[in-house]
Amino acid sequence: MDELPDWVQKYKGPRIQIRNFGNNYYAYRPRTKWDRVRKKTVSLPPEYLGVVTPRGIVKKQAISGIRGDYEYGNIALLYGIAEKSILPMLRQVFPYLHERIMIYVLLREIQPLPMKSVRYLFEKTWLSKVFNEGMTAKSISGMLSSLPEESMIEVMRSLCARGEYILIDSTAIFSRSSSIPILEMGHNSHGTHLPQINLMMLFSSTRREPTFIRIIPGSIRDVSTMKATMIMAGVERCVIIADKGFYSADNIKKLRKLHLDYIIPLKRNSSLIPASSEFTGVFDYDGRPVKYWNPVSGVYAFEDPVLRMEEEKDYLERVMQGKRSRKQFLEGSQVFGKVHLLSDLKESPERIYRLYKQREYVEYAFNVFKNDLEADRSYLGDDHMLFSYLFLNLLALNIHFQILNRTDGKYSVRDILLILSRIKIYALEGGEIMGEIPKKARELVTDLGVSLNMLRKN
């Protein structure tokens, strides 16, 4: 702990401990008890006495003149991340709207709400005490309609660092709106027959963050749109990580003509798969060994022993149930656990495999975009406002992944924000004071490097 100020030191004593978090100091009384079984004195959790103020040690209930309490810990984390990543560019590109944009993005990450309800969430957080924004439905709608498309593209281009692999994929977003011209009937993997737009996303393989989006009419699903998206984003290196349904001789021809790199998984009955031979080597992936073969005509072969065992177990259960025959098992067992990837990249097998597996992050990004952020539920009335709305949700998604990249998987991003929301600031007649910080929140503050001085007045 840093040295305590003189006015705090005078409250410290043998029976009073002082701890500081951010700009505030808290007093605790050590507690012990005699353990009859172990026959020794053991420590108990200290008793919380209250906040140390120049007037003395007071519990928050005893502090006079409290004007309100506001969620702060979640805001400190989100704003701290934004301040070091997207906010400088927003200030530059949107000098008059960057605060409203940032507030909306942060609130969107905390809880996605319809525009009419955003101000209620805003008023619960410390943002409402720092920024003079109403965050009404009218002000948000005005913001969405006034963001120039070229400026939004400029911000997204800044997220696409040059010289790194950027993965690319797309998903369909459905709507019954009759006022959005870009909505069209089209094919999709869900087999859903509704008007849709195709949302194309670029994802940094180096930083593991979404960086760019583009909306395309629902009827268009052509390789050429990928090239156009790359050019629009200013991306130098991009890899199309496709699914098994993408492969066709025509698609490969188009990719090569447009000089687009690709990694495409092949179906197990594909004629492109070379004859089996002795494997070349093995590498570690997520704590499990993966066997690999040298590529033949651009086809990279891998085998995951753990996946092989799982597939064999599943198939044998089907044999026991009479759903498969012993002969089918013997024929199918030759491909258990194997993955074959077609690629034009001249990279090591391990590099190809790791790039391919990053498709899981892209799929997760689409899942968060649609489900956590509810970005596919816009209820907007024109193409431009829809693009603005999706752009702001991309910024929220980018921050989401920055948090995710800092964690060890113990908590989800949603859980982290909920736990940190318990760190509150109390507005007083003459200033502000931070409430006691719960243990889990205190641990997250340390683990995530949250600055509890962020956006503080004192």
Strand content: 15-25%
The value of Rg in angstroms is 28 Å
Q: Tell me the strand order in the biggest sheet.
A: 8-7-6-9-10-14-13-12-11
Average per-residue pLDDT, rounded, comes to: 86
How many discrete domains?
A: 2
CATH topology of the largest domain: Transposase Inhibitor Protein From Tn5, Chain A, domain 1
Name of the top-level CATH class of the largest domain: Alpha Beta
Helical residues, percent: 25-40%
Shape: globular
Q: Point out poorly predicted stretches.
A: none
Task: Give the termini distance in whole angstroms.
Answer: 20 Å
Q: What's the number of extended β-strand segments?
A: 16
Reported CATH architecture of the largest domain? Alpha-Beta Complex
Biggest β-sheet, characterized?
9 strands, mixed
- Report the structural category: alpha+beta
* Number of DSSP helical runs: 17
Structure description:
- There is one protein chain.
- With 458 residues, the protein is an alpha+beta fold.
- It has two domains: 6-70 and 425-448, no CATH class; 152-404, Transposase Inhibitor Protein From Tn5, Chain A, domain 1 (Alpha-Beta Complex).
- The protein is 38% helix and 23% strand.
- It contains 17 helices and 16 strands.
- It has helices at 6-9, 73-83, 87-93, 98-110, 118-124, 127-130, 137-146, 149-159, 223-233, 249-257, 305-320, 326-332, 349-357, 359-372, 383-404, 413-420, 439-448; strands at residues 17-21, 24-35, 40-53, 56-58, 68-71, 166-174, 196-204, 209-217, 238-241, 261-265, 281-285, 288-292, 299-303, 338-343, 424-428, 431-434.
- The strands form three sheets. Strands 8-7-6-9-10-14-13-12-11 form a nine-stranded mixed β-sheet, sandwiched between helices. A four-stranded antiparallel β-sheet has the order 1-2-3-4. It has a three-stranded antiparallel β-sheet with strand order 5-15-16.
- Helix 2 crosses helix 4 and helix 3 packs antiparallel against helix 4 (98-110).
- It is globular, with a radius of gyration of 28 Å.
- The two termini are 20 Å apart.
- The mean pLDDT is 86.
